[in-house]
């Protein structure tokens, strides 16, 4: 699995209304990307625990990772050091949220996927 941009239907695009109502021809599609992501943490391993995975969605990967690592992210991520193992880019929040739900469900049931993701300690980021 690698980061990818999903090919979405026209309805998934975000439209920005023209500031000048007379000039409808200048309406442009403005895409604010959203991301579904998987984080990994090995913080509990030193205490005899196992590595952890967390999935979520955001508009800004770097800012969200910083929030998780500073204790201001989701409650389940507090007190651990996280890194991004996988992310996917989407054109809408709804699409990213749907993928997050898929990831959460899949990560709970698919042990081989969990092992593959946890093997990515030094996952290269290109965003």
From TrEMBL:
Domain of life: Bacteria
Family per similarity comment: Belongs to the UPF0213 family.
Region described as Disordered: 1-26
PROSITE patterns tied to this protein: GIY_YIG
InterPro entries: GIY-YIG_endonuc, GIY-YIG_endonuc_sf, UPF0213_domain
Pfam families: GIY-YIG (PF01541)
Protein name per Swiss-Prot or TrEMBL: GIY-YIG domain-containing protein
Occurrences of domain GIY-YIG (ranges): 32-115
Phylogenetic placement of the source organism: Bacteria, Pseudomonadati, Pseudomonadota, Alphaproteobacteria, PS1 clade
